[in-house]
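pinning this so it doesn't scroll away 📌
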Amino acid sequence: MAIKPTKAEKKVAYDQKLCQLLDQYSQVLIAAADNVGSTQLQNIRRGLREESVVLMGKNTMMKRSVKLHAEKTGNKEYLNLLPLLVGNVGLIFTKGDLKEISEEVAKYKVGAPARVGLVAPIDVIVPPGNTGLDPSQTSFFQVLNIPTKINKGTVEIITPVELIKKGEKVGSSEAALLAKLGIRPFSYGLVVVSVYDSGSVFSPEVLDLTEDDLIEKFAIGVSMVTSLSLALSYPTLAAAPHMFINAYKNVLAVAVATEYSYPQAEKVKEFLKDPSKFAVAAAPAAAAEAAAPLAAPAEEAKKEEPAEESDDDMGFSLFD
């Protein structure tokens, strides 16, 4: 008969396992495990077995192991995990792509009935249609103010009804009605709430960012730096091109307003003195461009005329 390990021995074994995982993996997904059953958790472990390890435990035990490992290794980055170990959470250690692992975890959701006293994670709407219940069951619908009618000996819901709102507690009447209708409105599974990567902690929404999103955010940041630099007249790499262009405009404005000149300003001054010169020069080019589309069909017509003549006489004279 095997001797069961004591609580102290279990704690030592848990410390060793968690410390070993922290040494092997630098990426950890912190997932909320509310209303997740043991069978469901086993299925998640099987699905992630190749490249990830799911570790559950009491928060006090996990915090204790993390602190001991940080002291032992001198790596204080592990301490960033401590604020995340709040509530019913588990740790998913992985070496794979964080986004792919997060999506894989989200697949293992199981439908659940609405139990009394449970806080609804989503809105619950009862759809219209035949319920299959006999007319003696109408009292449930009347208590919840659900409009019904009797159709072919069964109760039929006339319009869709918002039975429970998100964040509200499920009442006994709502739970009983949903059970009679066979509706399992909620689904539960591991939900990734935070991501730990080599000492950095960030929200799982970051995993959904694409390269285009990053480029857009970077462009917005550069635009803000440029605006601030121009407002303060402080040169930066982002504002330098705008400063050079503005400076050139100022020099050009001085040249136009005074007798001072330089080669690049001569053409501008000449245009300001007599804009008609440039208009005349531009007119033939514009006329040529406009006439080009009209000339093309005419040339094609000319080319086609000889072909038509040769087709008429077929190469023979009338008196041959």
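📌 and the second one:
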Amino acid sequence: MGAYVLRRLLLILPTLFGILVINFVLVQFMPGGPVEQIIAEIQGESGGVFDRIAGGGGGGGSAPVTGGSSEYRGAQGLPPDFIADLEKQFGFDKPPLERFFLMLWNYMRFDFGESYFRSISVVDLVLEKMPVSISLGLWSTLLAYTISIPLGIRKAVRDGMPFDTWTSGLIIVAYSIPSFLFAILLIVLFAGGSYFQIFPLRGLTSDNWESLSLGAKILDYLWHIVLPVTALTIGSFATLTLLTKNSFLEEIKKQYVVTARAKGLSERRVLIGHVFRNAMLIVIAGFPGLFISVFFSGSLIIETVFSLDGLGRLGYEAAIQRDYPVVFGTLYVFGLLGLVIGIISDMTYVWVDPRIDFEKREA
């Protein structure tokens, strides 16, 4: 197992390199970079970001990732020296290849530079937003397991019966509903949209959070996460339920279960004492993967719908603003987390069932 983990760790570097190369190349062809956005704001309002940039803001330690041309759309009437100064402040005066390798060198040292428009380091931004995304992903994953495992076992025991049929119908409907659409439905129904105003519409805490007692803070936090966690759970809950059911059905049909029943053991003891451990192997070992899946795929839409200040929303706003240090910093963090979680998932399989040997399977 040690050799297998070492090989997987060594594969992280070329994988991250490939991710950054592809996205760096794509960004070179994207119009509307930070310089163009500043020019557009200058032409439109003659203030805001212009004042901040003219005063020396932006830049940062990390190399920029998109190039600049002296011929920007909408730059007519602006002094060429001013355009050149903007390019220099963002680092666009360097050739693309030089910027790319400078970015790689900085990223190897976890130096992601500063946000172009927020005057804060990318690391500080990620650390500031990460607790919100982790909180949503963790609660959603735990809720999915809490519901799906008992329901999946029940469906396996009653396979083909009416209970299994109508719950399968509900699961299919739940799986087919996009999380963002379900989130909007929850807002309309329970957050003052058109019917009831039971839960808050946005944020994870109330305005008077600081003045609340510890118990009141916990209740206030739980009150705020009900709707976003429910919207996040809808897809993973359906998948995990069917996975649990199929895993139990496969184990129930095996010979050791027939032998245990022939010995006179009760059905409950057969299921809990014999089937459960083997059937839950794939379900338990898949916990890290499910968490990271919810963390990545759902955070952007749900955080935007419920106005939650997490990593997904940060990455979305950075992409809209062409804040490339933040875009590539969050991309790097997401990619690294995904690769590490993949290794942890494999290790979890071995921990749950020592009979699994990835090295032999690779051979």
